[in-house]
Structure prediction request, 148 residues.
Amino acid sequence: MSDSLDAQVRVAIYREFVRTSRAPSTARLSEVTQIPLPEIREALERLAAGKAIFLQPESREILLAAPLCTVPTPFLVRTAGQSYFGTCIWDALGILAMLHQDGTVETSCSCCGEALSLEIRKGNVSGSPSIVHFALPAKQWWADIVFT
Prediction:
């Protein structure tokens, strides 16, 4: 039962996140899924243990459901009528790919602070000439996903 419940909760997370640009609260997830709050919390813990989502350490509310992040980051993604935050450039580009939408990614150079903007139109990237640098290998990202 927990696998299907977890899948139902995960789909609800993404639907609400995409609709509102923010992660849904546990109370909202309970409301939209009609699943009791204790079961929602258990599902979130299982999803977090499986690295499907990341929870805030104290409140245990959703911090991110990759590629979407609920708190402001240096990677602002704008689509027609919506804005989202990605935790890194990879996630920011992933948001547009996931949504199958054109849009822009606004960020800055981590070295000098220069504003950078990338436009994605029909799957093509244009904008500020830039280099993407990943400080850690992908296999180490989940060791501390917030830092990464």
Summary: The two ends are 33 Å apart (CA to CA).
